[in-house]
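ARCHIVE CARD
SHELF: 3
SLOT: left
DATA:
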Amino acid sequence: MYSREENQKLKREFWIAFAEKYPRKWVLYDTKIKDFSFKFYVDNKKVQVLIDIEHKSEDKRVLYFEKLESLKSIIHEEFVKDLVFEKEYHLETQKIVSRVWVEMSGVKVSNRSDWDRIFDFFYKNMDGLERFYLEYDDYIKDI
């Protein structure tokens, strides 16, 4: 087991190594849609690339989610396969968000030998989601 400080140091090294392998600016929170963001997630069981829609208005959150869902076949065929779409995803805080994600299990951030596989998974899938978003953002924003 790692101490809290060791875990923080390891994660910092992980993100620095990722940025060195794939140096680029990611869209992440700069979507021009309030509470609509792209995220990387990593722990000692799985990694995910995801879109979270956290709009305070449930109606707007659902509308944005339905826009993405209406493009599901295009996303799967042209950008990212195996995406999971969940209209009501419950966070640990009990907050409900809409989430679209792809996941790889069986890897650990604490295992440096997994890092290249994680980095490649992150790059391939986030790049695909961002390319999709940049191509269809006008349609998604129009609610």
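SLOT: right
DATA:
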Amino acid sequence: MATIAAQFKKQRVLCRISQKTLRDKFCASDEDPMHSVAQHRIAIHKAAAMLIENETYEEDGSVLILACHLS
């Protein structure tokens, strides 16, 4: 699981994306998933923003980015 942080209304929101999603969507390697996150930062940020705007939060207050959220 890769985790990035977003700022929304002066609050920090953790955005999580699974290794499987990174692998399936971006062909990420198991050894360095954050490299794939960095390469596809714009798509991941767009997906996170959409989930936050739609208030699609997990129980812990984070958002979980799935392959279907990524264009």
